[in-house]
Amino acid sequence: MAIARYIVARLLKALAVLIAIAVLNFLLIHAAPGDPAAVMAGEAGAADEIFLQQLREKFGLDRPFHVQLWSYLAGILQFDLGFSYRQELPVAKLILDRLPATLLLTGTAFLISILLGVLLGALAAVRVGRWADSAITTLALIFYATPLFWIALMAILLFSVQLDWLPAYGFETVGSGYTGLERVGDIARHLVLPALTLGLFFMAIYARMTRASMLETAGQDFVKTARAKGLADGPILRRHILRNAILPVVTLAGLQAGQIVGGAVLTETVFAWPGIGRLMFEALLQRDYNLLLGVFLVSSALVLLFNLITDLVYLVVDPRISLAK
Amino acid sequence: MSPTKDFWRRFRRNRGATIGLALVWVVIAIAILAPILYPQSPWRMVQRPFLPPFAVEGFWFGTDTLGRDIGAGLAYGARVSLLIGLVSTLVALLIGIPIGAVAGYFAGRWDDALMRFTEFFQTIPSFALAIVLVAILEPSLGSIVLAIAIVGWPPVARLVRGEFLSLRSREYVQAAVLSGQRPSAIIFRQILPNTLSPVIVLASLMVATAILLESSLSFLGLGDPNVMSWGYMIGAARTVLRQAWWMSVFPGLAILLTVLALNLIGEGLNDALNPRLARKGR
After folding, report:
1. Mind telling me how many Å the CA of A50 is from chain B's nearest CA?
2. By CB atoms within 10 Å of each CB, which of A45, A271, A296, B65 scores lowest?
3. How far is it, in rounded angstroms, from Cα A287 to Cα B30?
4. Shortest CB distance from A142 goes to which of B122, B234, B260?
5. ipTM of the complex
6. Which long-range contacts does B10-15 make (Cβ < 8 Å, 24+ apart)?
7. Full-model pTM
């Protein structure tokens, strides 16, 4: 029961944040220079006056501000994100079509970054001061300073152009006619480079964090107690140090979720990955503000989802939290 | 030993930080000397297009798809990166410090409200928000600085708040309250100076993040169209990656080295100024 209440409270909070983001979105449309109707039509010029007038009437742009805000929010609650006049499709449909690819990419990158990051960070902490530690620390420092889009380009140069190991662009081989397992394998091969490059930057962050956190935990009294009790190094490391040291990493991972979704814009653009990040880039190129703001709203919602998952993971990993009161 | 000398002694003991500082000085020198090193505008076509590096004397970095000198682009790009990194960090500090100070000093309801506000900005995917802001305000140095500052201030506010919360109950603050000083005087003259060292560490790391963010924005075509920047160069070279590696490799290395150097300086400052405190802010 306690867990159910906890989850409901979290969901309500997420909903409140989502509404706040929708309000921000609405304000941004109005902050854009010029007529909001022109913004919605996707850059003025192309749209004639009659069309703009229709838009004004449809969205009530001539009505008072709060009425407009209300109808905008009501629309969002019905999954109406407006219409992309450039692509001639509803924004919600454009985004829904692209969402699975982004979920696959960001989800894989998230897993890679946290698993590899914790593993490498822990290894560095165990071997502190030795060459493995120096190598991992230096690598993390470099990845942490490298622009994501540039790593992506360099990965294409090395693994696709030079070595010809992996495909550089797209979601799957076009016109290959693969089905079933063959198709899954094909998509997986296309996923490797984008997911790795997106994951590496975050892996660097988690590795540094895990290392620092483990070294700090290892110096604490309860670890000395465990040692004094005669426990072997292995169990101390796993059950006492790692279990406690991983908590700040999980917190950080939750905070970083937004960055991964943002990073997807760059990775998807470079690898022509058909997700909402790429959609955002297309919206930018075409000055399609309505689509741009729609993607922004949905990616914020994705972040909230990732945060929610982190909160649930916390329930599992934190030895101090017990909801079964 | 004076505090400044002591600080330098500790900073220099950190090898990475010393290398980082030297590197940043080099980048600053290149940025300042750009008009002397390359008197011609980086936008001018000066050689044949697609000239590989080291092929013609004086064009060590080669030329781009339009025959513009990549060396000139690198030098002028350094100006934009440093300028945007510094100014946007300053603006983020100007937003974050007052919010954090008020939240931490008054605590209670103010703290709750301001921290909800800060958390909200931390939840929004910052890169996506920056894209939307620059796109809607039209790309320019001003809008890029503003966007980076708007997504960058929350960690500052949280850090300053934490410091204020722990300092507000100290005796010297209590004494100032009892002596009838106004809250603004206590905040700015008594407490704020004591929070500076972790803020300086965070700021040095924020400059690095801002440079990364600026390069990502201009890579996507959201740079100021009137100034040459490293991200723009890579974005323009992306489509010819297979034919002309040097057009993307050199500007990328420039970003990598500059950001790495700033991060190293940040770590050195952290070790020299406050061994434990500052890591929390990130």
Report:
1. 24
2. A45
3. 35
4. B260
5. 0.88
6. B10/B271, B10/B272, B11/B268, B11/B269, B11/B271, B11/B272, B14/B267, B14/B268, B14/B271, B14/B272
7. 0.89
